[in-house]
Amino acid sequence: MFVYPNYKRRLALARSLISIPNRSSPPFSLKFYENQYSQLRVCGKMAEQTKQQPAFTKIDQLRPGAFGLNLTVKVVSSKMIMTRGGRNGTQGRNNMRLAECLVGDETGIIVFTARNDQVDAMKEGSSVILRNAKIDMYKGSMRLAVDKWGRVEITDAAAFSVKEDSNLSLIEFELITVEE
């Protein structure tokens, strides 16, 4: 075995520069490990206690630019807007389905834009839970959408009747710049 000249001296210098303790003594005492373990246990208990139930939003509380919304809605109507895909209906990466659905709850209704697999869940009369939904603006009006980080779940029939008088998608918004 070949040993470089001044090996021990260089090793000691390197250890002192990067503060590595000698191998003869343990890097930390047993008390350190006990403290770390107890802190992890406490942190674990605290993490369990801080879990929150998702807050569900009503349609009349929606505002432009809102995101991270959870809603329970009923599908009033569904209309296929676009189907684009491969030849002979083959499944592929370029397939795209787009549907506009009118969804609502007891406070109002809004247009929901369903994409690809979401279209299958949006059958007329079904109740769905929209998780991590967001509001998109299209030609000055609000549209509800769920992107790839969100989820559309079919649920049991909701116990409310949809209020069709108040359509939030018919309200036109305009961005105004205020000069000081």
Automatic annotation (TrEMBL):
<protein>
    <recommendedName>
        <fullName>Single-stranded DNA binding protein Ssb-like OB fold domain-containing protein</fullName>
    </recommendedName>
</protein>
<dbReference type="Pfam" id="PF21473">
    <property type="entry name" value="OB_Ssb-like"/>
</dbReference>
<feature type="domain" description="Single-stranded DNA binding protein Ssb-like OB fold">
    <location>
        <begin position="62"/>
        <end position="153"/>
    </location>
</feature>
<dbReference type="InterPro" id="IPR048970">
    <property type="entry name" value="OB_Ssb-like"/>
</dbReference>
<dbReference type="InterPro" id="IPR012340">
    <property type="entry name" value="NA-bd_OB-fold"/>
</dbReference>
